[in-house]
Design goal:
Layout (H helix, E strand, L loop, with lengths): L16 E2 L2 E2 L24 E4 L4 E2 H8 L24 E7 L6 E9 L11 E8 L6 E7 L6 E6 L5 E7 L2 H7 L1 E3 L2 E12 L4 E8 L4 E8 L5 H4 L8 E8 L6 H4 L4 E11 L2 E4 L23 E6 L3 E5 L1
Parallel strand pairs: 3-14
Antiparallel strand pairs: 1-2, 4-10, 5-15, 6-12, 6-16, 7-8, 7-15, 8-9, 9-10, 11-12, 12-13, 13-14, 16-17, 16-19, 18-19
Length: 311
């Protein structure tokens, strides 16, 4: 299938925008223009190199937090921490495409430079998996262990964190853009070999206008067994393992915005926008209190290709 590569319309590589300030002195003011999502990676599209400085294996798990819970789909209880399982409020909201012939997903995901949790909490915002047959979930993680990280969760082999990439100035210089005033990156998670169920997660490099490989894995997906009996399709969602108290994530994210935009799924060989019928949101719009953060609001900007969570 021939697909020409489109250059995103709004590129602000130098801009690192935090809530109310810039992370780098002299950084460009964030544009409020929407970036046009690049064409998905495919046989005739421009594939670049490999994302540099990716930590894998046991070192990746350590970098993500040795006792980090799994970024799990609905109903899965996180792994027990060394000091016992915390009383987490596990809540999630986003779009959930039906299980079927989904062989890829693409989205532009916002991130908040420098955001860290104070307590033993985990915020996956956003986190993306195309289908329950995938080997890879791509997660934007915020925790107390490190500044924001991009994680590849391996659902086929280790069923654990398999790769991490720190989201810092270096990351932004290559993979960052600005969408609706928020720092963002564009990811694609796609089936690249049906015979072996090999999936590859790519990041779009805005400096080279090419897709770089972040992680690849093959095998049989364990989502339906290790995912708490998950029988659905994929997801693109805001997910939190929250604790109560004055140190919980709500205070840390007071000025943060979490947005997923230009959400598409590869269905029967064609890239299709997420729609309310194909990729419905997870039930009725929740309250912030359900997420241990009363001021939190949940909004569908464009059904269902763009959603925002913020206070």
């Amino acid at each position: 299938m021939s697909r020409s590569l489109r250059k995103p319309a709004a590129i602000a590589v130098a801009a690192l925008v935090t809530a109310g300030s810039t992370l780098l002195s002299g950084a460009a003011q964030a544009s409020t223009a929407r970036a046009t999502a690049p064409t998905a990676a495919g046989p005739t599209d421009r594939i670049g190199g490999v994302v540099p400085d990716v930590v894998t294996g046991a070192a990746a798990r350590k970098a993500a937090g040795v006792d980090a819970p799994a970024p799990a789909p609905a109903g899965r209880h996180p792994k027990a921490a060394s000091a016992g399982t915390p009383n987490w409020n596990h809540s999630y909201w986003g779009d959930f495409p039906a299980r079927g012939n989904n062989t890829g997903a693409m989205a532009t995901q916002s991130y908040v430079p420098g955001l860290e949790m104070l307590d033993n909490e985990y915020l996956y915002a956003p986190t993306l998996a195309p289908d329950s047959s995938t080997c890879i979930e791509v997660v934007t993680q915020y925790s107390r262990y490190a500044t924001p990280q991009l994680l590849a969760w391996d659902w086929c082999r280790s069923v654990d964190v398999a790769a991490t990439k720190t989201i810092d100035a270096s990351f932004t210089a290559s993979y960052g853009t600005v969408v609706n005033g928020h720092n963002s990156y564009t990811v694609e998670d796609v089936l690249t070999d049906a015979a072996t169920n090999t999936w590859t997660a790519y990041l779009y490099n805005y400096r080279t206008n090419a897709w770089d490989v972040f992680y690849t894995q093959s095998g049989t997906s364990q989502i339906s067994t290790d995912g708490g009996g998950w029988k659905g399709g994929g997801w693109d969602m805001f997910e939190v393992y929250a604790l109560s108290g004055s140190r919980n994530y709500c205070a840390q994210t007071r000025n943060a915005v979490f947005e997923s935009s230009s959400i598409q799924y590869l269905v029967d060989g064609a890239w299709t926008d997420a729609t309310a019928s194909f990729a419905p949101m997870s039930g009725t719009t929740p309250t912030g209190s359900a997420f241990s953060c009363p001021p939190l609001t949940f909004n569908v900007v464009a059904p269902n290709t763009d959603w925002v969570v913020k206070q």
